[in-house]
Design a protein that fits this description.
CATH superfamily: Vaccinia Virus protein VP39
Distance between the termini: 41 Å
Radius of gyration: 18 Å
Number of strands: 13
Number of domains: 1
Number of helices: 8
Helix content: 25-40%
Oligomer: single chain
CATH architecture: 3-Layer(aba) Sandwich
Largest sheet: 7 strands, mixed
Length: 292
């Protein structure tokens, strides 16, 4: 059967396959701990990332949870791979490093992240990670730390352990806002931020990423997403969100409405050459660019 006619494939991504594989020269080897009380370090080959998914044909499929990959996650991961590989093979990888050996400044690292370049200094948080493909790829192309989060982390934690290597970690994070009906949920977000800063040399992430995190969501969910991202970021943090329209363009408007109230500003640009329904949203707290 022609893949374009296969209903299980969306933008050539098979949501019923046992695993999703991304191959790229930018993906580095990694080490991972084997499970069990006598865990040994095992080497994960470079050049590819493989993560498991549980589609509708799987007995372990969970309705309304992120147990399958969505096309934007893979597309954004590959875009980061391409940009990072170009940078690694150019003078940029050496030219922006500080001569004193202390690495790049925070501003330099964030500026590169805006161009989809991951450096050995980059700290990343992925929100709404699903099966974790994007965050794992970012860890494997050289991020200093990739913190991969979702509300449901059952499958995510397995994938991070198996494929992420020592620079990836899985943590539970449920989006919330100061106006959430359950005040403890917002308290949990603030506690997450405090712990993250304490564990990362007193700094917020250089980069926050998310893909397919807006899909027929309520205004309350859009508010919670914007509030959570704003709480995680500081003025230098770059925020990149991949969005695919599925007949709900109002989601972008709702999200930007709430993002502005949280002090976030940015723009949405077409992403990819073949699909007008894909957007790459870049945000920051600086307000350097104009919001749509």
């Amino acid at each position: 059967m022609d893949p374009s006619e296969d209903w299980s494939r969306i933008h050539n991504v098979d949501q019923r396959a046992r695993a999703v594989i991304v191959t790229h020269d930018a993906i580095e080897p990694a080490d991972a701990a084997a499970p069990g009380p006598r865990a040994r370090r095992t080497v994960i080959d470079g050049g590819r990332v493989e993560v498991r998914q549980r589609g509708s044909g799987s007995e372990a499929f969970e309705a309304d949870t992120s147990t399958v990959v969505w096309p934007m996650s893979r597309a954004v991961a590959e875009a980061f791979c391409d940009a990072t590989q170009r940078w690694k093979t150019s003078e940029g990888a050496r030219g922006t490093a500080r001569d004193d050996g202390r690495g790049r400044t925070r501003a330099e690292t964030c500026a590169l992240a805006k161009e989809l370049v991951i450096t050995p200094d980059t700290r990343v948080i992925e929100v709404g990670a699903g099966i974790g493909l994007l965050g794992i790829v970012l860890a494997r192309i050289g991020a200093k730390r990739s913190t991969i989060t979702d509300d449901n982390v059952r499958l995510l934690s397995e994938n991070v352990s198996a494929s992420g290597g020592s620079r990836a970690e899985c943590k539970r994070l449920r989006w919330a806002s100061p106006t959430s009906a359950n005040a403890s949920e917002w308290d949990a977000v603030q506690a997450f931020v405090e712990t993250y800063v304490r564990e990362n040399d007193g700094e917020r992430p250089h980069l926050i990423v998310g893909t397919d995190v807006m899909y027929s969501q309520s205004r309350a969910t859009c508010r919670a997403l914007a509030s959570t991202i704003a709480a995680l970021a500081d003025d230098d943090t770059v925020i990149i969100i991949g969005f695919e329209d599925r007949g709900d363009w109002g989601q972008v408007a709702h999200f930007f409405e709430h993002a502005e109230t949280c002090g976030l500003r940015g723009e949405a640009d077409p992403f990819g050459e073949d699909d007008d329904d894909w957007l790459l949203i870049r945000l920051s707290k600086r307000g350097d660019s104009k919001s749509p």
